[in-house]
Design goal:
Shape: globular
Radius of gyration: 19 Å
Mean pLDDT: 86
Number of strands: 9
Number of domains: 2
Order of helices and strands: EEHEHHHEEEHHHHHEEHEH
């Protein structure tokens, strides 16, 4: 996503490489309009959307774009809302928007909007994109979804530099068993990843991923995957690129 210009009319204009999504249904547009309504500003803007992440992949692309919209327009419109205020506003649109507004690695509790900062080892991730689309509403309303998993005290488990062990061995996605039973393409991808490390589901899917210590390891497995699956690699960071860019624009130091 790229902001091309600030406008002095209240119009929010979007140009996009996506087809079939109404402007009014786009989280970027909804976030901008919500911020306009809260602030009472008469300013607007033009936004260019270059979609790279797969639609419906469970990777938070729409939520991160909405968060970036709140952060950027807060700055461009000189509204001076705090991150906490923007986070609370974003939660009206989606439970995972606050973590992108805050922009740091965090433990999420409640519905995911109660955040506690945590420092994680920066790993590399291989993400596979099975050729299917998971209906999130269907998964959350399905009678087969596990709903009684005991709560874990996550913060103590991450103390003392133990994040790698915790992420590898203690994290569980309650949606995974159900989703893999309903979508054989996802089940196949996770089982394939299990040859090289712990294969996991992203949210309700459809993407699957595995963690690696280095870019070279992740790239080697991706090279093998390309005979059977589409995918890409990404580096995990403790501070989001959006926050770093915003800090640079404000003249702040960007320290991870």
């Amino acid at each position: 996503m790229q902001f091309t210009s600030l406008t002095h009319s209240p119009d929010i204009e979007l140009s996009s490489n996506l087809d079939g999504i109404k402007k009014e249904d786009n989280l970027i547009y909804r976030a901008a309009k919500l911020l306009q309504k809260k602030s009472g500003t008469h300013l607007g803007g033009k936004i260019c959307i270059q979609k790279n992440l797969p639609l419906g992949g469970g990777l938070g692309g729409g939520s991160s774009n909405a968060a970036t919209t709140l952060l950027a327009f807060n700055y461009l419109w000189s509204l001076n809302y705090s991150q906490d205020e923007l986070s609370n506003l974003g939660a009206y649109l989606g439970a995972d928007i606050p973590v992108f507004v805050k922009g740091y690695s965090a433990i999420g509790e409640g519905i995911g909007d109660e955040l506690s900062s945590v420092k994680l080892e920066e790993s590399w991730y291989l993400i596979l994109t099975p050729n299917c689309h998971v209906n999130t509403t269907e998964i959350f309303s399905h009678e087969g979804l596990t709903r009684d998993t005991p709560k874990q005290r996550i913060a103590p488990a991450l103390e003392g530099g133990n994040s790698k062990h915790f992420l590898n061995n203690c994290v569980k996605n309650d949606c995974e068993t159900l989703v893999t039973s309903l979508y054989p393409e996802i089940d196949e991808a996770i089982k394939w990843l299990n040859q090289f490390g712990q294969g996991r589901l992203t949210g309700t899917g459809a993407c699957c991923f595995s963690r690696f210590d280095s870019e070279a390891e992740a790239q080697q497995v991706l090279n093998e995957a390309q005979f059977k699956f589409k995918g890409f690699i990404a580096k995990g960071v403790n501070l989001s690129p959006a926050i770093k860019k915003l800090n640079e624009a404000k003249g702040f130091a960007t320290d991870q």
